[in-house]
Amino acid sequence: MSRSLLFAWLMVASAATLAAPPPAPAPATAPAPARVPTPAAAAPAAAPAGNPIPQPPVVDARAYILLDHDSGRVLAEAHADDRMEPASLTKLMTSYAVFAALKEGRLKLTDMVTISEHAWRAEGSRTFVQVGTQIPAEVLIKGMLVQSGNDATIALAEKVGGTEAAFAQIMNVYAKRLGMKSTNFENSDGLPSPNHYTTARDMATLSRAVVRDFPQYYAWYGLREFTWNNITQHNRNGLLLRDPTVDGIKTGHTDTAGYCLITSAKRGGMRLTSVVLGSPSIKAREDASAALLNYGYTFYETGKVKARGELILQPPVYKGVTATVPAGSPAELYVTVGRGQFASLHTSATVKQPLIAPIAAGAVIGEFTVAVPGGDVVIREPLVALSADPLGGLWTRMTDSIALWFK
Q1: Is 148 a catalytic residue?
Q2: Is 91 a catalytic residue?
Q3: How many domains does the chain fold into?
Q4: Helix (H) or strand (E) holding 382
Q5: Is the pLDDT reported for residue 265 higher than 90?
Q6: Of 65, 84, 81, 61, which is closest to residue 197 (Cα–Cα)?
Q7: Which of 135, 156, 276, 374 stands the most exposed, by the fewest C-beta atoms within 10 Å?
Q8: Is 283 marked active-site?
Q9: Domain closes at, from 193, 212, 242
């Protein structure tokens, strides 16, 4: 058969199959995905191994966790998934729900909140609001966060949820959305209740969400004092005075929960968060938090690997309008590694082969990985199409169909 007749036969056969891509090969004979290096410069041949990392410090608490805010990597933990009483750490979720109401326009900082008898009679820490008075929401928020006022907290819960019980349901909805798998709230202030519980890991998840989702309000967690009704009360987080890099977040205490503290600090652009539950004293919870933070900052470093939407690869596409599609990360990628290792990280990308149009923007087309010297992977994230590539014209589809047969 002549070459012209062969080409004509191929053209007719390919036209009959344009409606659908060629059948996928059987799993047993599927080729391994192509591993394509990123455009980043190659790591040096002799990468530093980094400093040795000792075990985390021994601290006086029933449970704790330490994690990096940006990467989410857990640097130290003990009993982090044990069910515990949150005490006034509960107010962190109360504030999250209140800030969500502010963001959505359901509440304004200038809205006047009427103090009910239920709020006025609240036990424990107080902001000393009076029953029947109307107080701006901003004042109550500061009273809740700085003074840990149960009266201010309940008043806010009633304003946003109608009743405190209904507000607790809202808190649980947010907890579920954030992935707090071992948490249930029965009230807004954290007083002991049979079915009111959390874990150190869940509180760390919530802390990370507060900083991420409501940066415009985060500074209130670091206020050192607040005055209302001619009464000045100081923030119960003593680390705000001991460590200038500490800027939040919340204290908690009941006789059964012990002394609890969520601490967040930022040093040199690196934010760490520690959660300490069930310490025997105020000093013990502060010493435990300080020891965990110092451990993290001494032995670890965090850096950005890729920005959201940053181009990583431009792999070829068959049957599309364009010959290639830009690929990148759908989110900012941070990595936390031992000090001295960040400069020696290895990055690589795996792309599905072959890529066949149409491809939608945001479609997962591969995987991006980051590994430390020695090969251990520390990030494994999806690689997505940064723009769409619709189906190409008849001639492109025909010629690419032929090319795929010979691939």
Answers
A1: yes
A2: yes
A3: 2
A4: strand 377-385
A5: yes
A6: 84
A7: 374
A8: no
A9: 242
